[in-house]
Design brief:
By secondary structure, the protein is of the alpha/beta class. The chain has 14 helices and 12 strands. The strands form 4 sheets. The chain has a 6-stranded mixed beta sheet with strand order 2-1-5-6-10-9. Helix 6 runs antiparallel to helix 7 (187-197) and helix 11 packs across helix 14 (316-326). The chain is globular.
Amino acid sequence: METRAHRVHRVVVLALAGLLPFELGIPHRIFGRAKDSAGRPLYEILTCGLAPGPVPTDADFDIHVEHGPELLATADTVVVPASYELGPVHDEGRLTPELAVALGHIRPGTRLVSICTGGYVLAAAGYLDGRRATTHWSSAEHFQQTFPAVLVDPGVLYTDDGDVLTSAGVAAGIDLCLHIVRRDHGAAVANDVARRTVVPPHREGGQAQFIERPVPQPQRSATTAARAWVLDRLHEPLRLTDLARQEAMSVRTFTRRFREESGLSPGEWIVGQRVERARALLEQTDLPMEHVAREAGFGTAQSLRKHVQAALGVSPTAYRRTFRDAEQGSTLPSPDGTSVVAGSVH
């Protein structure tokens, strides 16, 4: 019999007509690659529709789902990917009777996740009322007009409100699913999934959704080399002039280019990388806090505490303790200060 710590968390993906096949596959790809230290799957991912059978997509093929909406009653997490055929959900902000019946199967306390315009479904069902949420930037204004009770943040990659999480379009769904894995099981597991999937291991939810120049123009230098240089020296004092020198730019030009390419200032990005380094050290080692602070580049335990608390909502000591406890089935902190059972949500 499985122990609670090894319980497999069930993710049910709701496939609606007009869905985008890429976004439908994101939960299967990300959660399906998450393994514990013994190589056992940490998630079970299943797909359902409003009825068993074919579901049309926005491509030139349908998908066939074996399960109907009754499967939603068994979910620990429900994911709603984007669809281009939401009908009255999108146009009027109301559920169809068929969709309302389907969502009625979801148990109280189930974690709810949307990718891109899948947020319209959660909003129409009332799950987002009074909560911060996002969607694809091109739909944000319409989303806010349709659902005035929702606190729409149009610029971020994803939002985490504890048991309800939303993402912007397409690739932001990957970021959100990795964030959930990190929240459930820590940075080491999430980073392993990212490596296997060949995607960046961590983009903060608050990072700008629309980046001015995601692909550097020809004959315009990028800041990639400077970022690689930083990652090898997170434990050292880092000056903006040193980063700019790696790209042979002035500080002003480098700062502008960095924000255009990453959506963050150099300082914000470095702090985020240092928090990730500290997080890994807290999870994987028993190093004293002063040592963790030095290795991560924060210098002192007080500075480490300040930045980890700001990013994760708990102190480094509490994070280490709850992460270790989570291996025995306790809780991990989430960035909003709520707690989530490792491998399950209740």
